Amino acid sequence: MLTQDTSVTIKVLYPQGMAIKAIARELGISKNTVKKYLKNSSQTQYAQRPKRPSKLDPFKPYLNQRIESAAPDWIPATVLFDEILAQGYTGKIRILCSYLSALKPQQIS
User: Fold this and answer.
1) 11 and 38 in contact (C-beta within 8 Å)?
2) Number of domains the chain contains
3) pLDDT averaged over 10-residue windows placed end to end, the chain, 109 residues
4) Do residue 29 and residue 64 come from a single domain?
């Protein structure tokens, strides 16, 4: 098994026009190893991580309902934060502010 540095070097040198035999000689490995890493380079795909649940997720329906019922007025984040704290929210206000900023209507001047 090669180090990641060596693997990356193979993937960089080959497209630059360097022959497989020359790459093998320069890195001190066999031609078959170079071929193997070139063949597998296109198959290296990493899966996307699944989204982690937020501490705010259980409270989002309540927050959406509260914001809709107060429209066109806006409820400050501190008021909503106090309300969901009483319901058992354990997160910080910054998470709530980030979520609310996406919901806040833009003022047109």
Assistant:
1) yes
2) 2
3) 82 90 92 88 70 93 92 89 94 93 76
4) no
* Ordered alpha helix ranges (H), 1-109: 4-13, 20-27, 31-41, 60-70, 77-86, 93-103
The Cα–Cα gap between 100 and 74 comes to 10
Is residue 75 a contact partner of residue 84, using CB atoms and an 8 Å limit? no
| Contact predicate 90/55, CB 8 Å | yes
| Residues in contact with 84: Cβ distance below 8 Å, sequence separation at least 6, in sequence order | 59, 62, 63, 96
Report the amino acid identity of residue 53: P
In order of 76, 106, 107, the CA distances from 72 in angstroms are 13, 12, 12
Instruction: Domain of residue 34: give its range.
Output: 4-41
